[in-house]
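Feature request, filed as a ticket because there's no other form

It would be nice if the structure record came with a short human-readable summary line next to the tokens. Right now we just get the raw output. Example of a typical job, pasted below so the devs can see what we mean:
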Amino acid sequence: MLFTASTVSMLHNLGQLIWVLMLFVLVLLLTLLTTRWIAKYQQGQLHNQNLKIIETLKVSANGYIQIIRAGDVYLVIAVTKDHIEKLAEIREDQLTDYAAGAAGQKIDMAESFHDILDKVKHHLPKK
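Raw output as currently delivered:
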């Protein structure tokens, strides 16, 4: 079988495309592995620490109110770009555990999406 110059050129270009795609997948794989390694490393650094942010509320473009746990003490602090100020100290029994209340509610996302899709279908013009 004879290969013409255009066929050889096409095969060469195809080979280059496959090579670039393999390199791209390799870079994505290395990025994924590096990200997981860094996450595990940072989690190990933060484990068994005495400080923990319990809740954060954004009150302005660069201002937050946070509830933090420092040892056995719970503090309410205001955090801005240049300043941190203690607002109050609260007891653990004054905190409301919203995660426990939300766990009892189950939302069927497939059902909700189906309802939304039906509403959209009714508003579309029929052909």
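Something like this underneath would help us a lot:
The chain is about 50% helix and 25% strand.
The beta strands are 51-60, 63-70, 73-79, 84-90.
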